[in-house]
Write a structure and sequence with these properties.
The longest helix is centred in the C-terminal third of the chain and has 44 residues, at 374-417. The chain has helices spanning 2-30, 35-62, 72-75, 77-91, 95-105, 107-116, 118-138, 142-157, 161-173, 177-193, 196-213, 215-220, 223-247, 252-270, 272-287, 289-311, 316-334, 336-371, 374-417. It is mainly alpha-helical and 424 residues long. It contains 19 helices and no strands. Helix 1 packs antiparallel against helix 2 and helix 7 (118-138) packs across helix 17. The two termini are 52 Å apart.
Length: 424
């Protein structure tokens, strides 16, 4: 309504200027001759011509006005749509302009600064907590739970456990990684054997074994001393053995370990009996009521804990999300190379995606404008820029008056120079 009122007032002002110039022209034409009367008439005449010409030019943009090549906007709606879409694509959605936008504004820096602000991190944490709470509410629906369960069963049903496990072990054993695991196990076992509690446990176990297997002999033997020495000897033997394995990359036990692992991987890939056993285990897991009930109970307990935590003002999940968000922002702020890498990846993504996205948006713009009613399009354009066009009419009236005055002055000067005498 404000734009319509403003347009109406501008049209009224332009019309009043036209009527004023016509009135002055009529009045001066009927008045006795005098130089100033002739000047006013010339100005009014030129102002009227300028006002009428600009009125025709402005009106011809939106409506048909007797002469050909009028109603320019309604007649050229489709071409306007195509040109507008092409303009948007070339000037705003081209890969060059979008990548330049990334370089100019450094979105990684802006994102890092936003995430590092405590209030923004807290706000994002609250939003994520709300989303999580809504998701938990959604999962209360039995149909959705059934759908998720069926989808999980369908996905797991297609998994070949033996081959999947073989692939995992292939990855773990690549480049001797399993030997590193063996080294860590050896270190832990050696440390365990060297503890007093371990040796005391071995000694006690030895004494109990003597009492159980040889009760009569145990009574005459120093069983406590035998237990301690046995524990010490056994620990030393195992310690030396494992230390030797740890220090010798080619130790026979290492080679045996390699063979066992390689053989197990081969069996997982080729042994039909082992594969059948793996499929049986998978079927028991999927179809067993105990497993399904356990998983359901575990999920219900977890969901209830999450719901109760999110309901508290001091929610641990909310605090963790907010803290993680702030940490990410701070890490980005402190790592210029990471920000530059993010910006480069964003530029590459824009470069690869922008042609398709730009094509879709430009087609959408073009098709949308083409589907508009021609008269409605004309009315909307006039509503938005018509007020400025009415000022062109007003300016045409003023400029016409000034041109009329200049022409009158030039005519008067030429008559004076030609000796025609003064104008009346």
């Amino acid at each position: 309504m404000d734009k319509q009122l403003s347009l109406r007032r501008a049209k009224r002002a332009a019309l009043l200027c036209l009527l004023a110039s016509v009135a002055v022209f009529v009045a001066t034409s009927l008045s006795p001759r005098a130089w100033w009367v002739d000047l006013l008439r010339a100005m009014a005449e030129a102002a009227t011509v300028g006002a009428l010409a600009d009125w025709f030019a402005v009106t011809a943009l939106f409506r048909k006005v007797l002469l050909p090549h009028t109603a320019i906007i309604p007649r050229n709606k489709d071409r306007i749509a195509d040109n507008l879409a092409q303009f948007v694509q070339e000037k705003f959605l081209s890969p060059q302009s979008l990548t330049e936008l990334v370089r100019r504004h450094d979105p990684a820096q802006r994102l890092a600064a936003w995430l590092a602000a405590p209030e923004n991190a807290a706000r994002l944490g609250a939003y994520m907590a709300q989303a999580m709470a809504g998701l938990l509410t959604l999962t209360d629906d039995r149909k959705i739970q059934g759908f998720v369960r069926d989808a999980l069963h369908a996905a797991l049903g297609k998994v070949d456990l033996s081959r999947s496990l073989a692939a995992i072990l292939d990855t773990l054993t690549q480049d001797g990684r399993h030997q590193q695991l063996l080294d860590r196990v050896i270190v832990q076992v050696v440390e365990l054997l060297n503890r007093e509690q371990t040796r005391a446990f071995i000694a006690q176990s030895m004494v109990e074994w003597l009492r159980r297997e040889y009760p009569k002999i145990e009574k005459v033997l120093p069983s406590s001393w035998i237990g301690e020495k046995s524990a010490e000897t056994l620990a030393d033997i195992i310690d030396k053995l494992l230390t030797g394995v740890a220090q010798d990359p080619q130790h026979s036990l290492r080679q045996a370990f390699d063979k066992q692992v390689a053989g197990f991987v081969t069996r997982l890939k080729e042994d039909e009996g082992l594969r059948a056993r793996a499929e049986e285990i998978k079927r028991e897991l999927l179809e067993g009521e105990a497993v399904n009930a356990y998983v359901a109970g575990l999920w219900n307990s977890l969901r209830e804990w999450i719901r109760q935590d999110l309901a508290r003002a001091d929610s641990a999940l909310h605090a963790q999300v907010a803290g993680g968000t702030q940490w990410i922002g701070q890490a980005l702020l402190e790592d210029a190379e990471l920000r530059a890498s993010l910006n480069r990846h964003l530029e590459q993504a824009i470069g690869s995606l922008s042609p398709e996205v730009a094509g879709f948006l430009t087609r959408h713009i073009s098709d949308t404008v083409k589907n508009w009613d021609a008269q409605e399009l004309s009315r909307q354009i006039e509503l938005h820029i018509g007020r400025d066009l009415q000022y062109i009419r007003i300016n045409g009236t003023v400029v016409g008056a000034l041109v009329g005055a200049l022409l009158f002055g030039a005519s008067w000067l030429m008559q004076r120079l030609a000796g025609w005498g003064p104008l009346h």
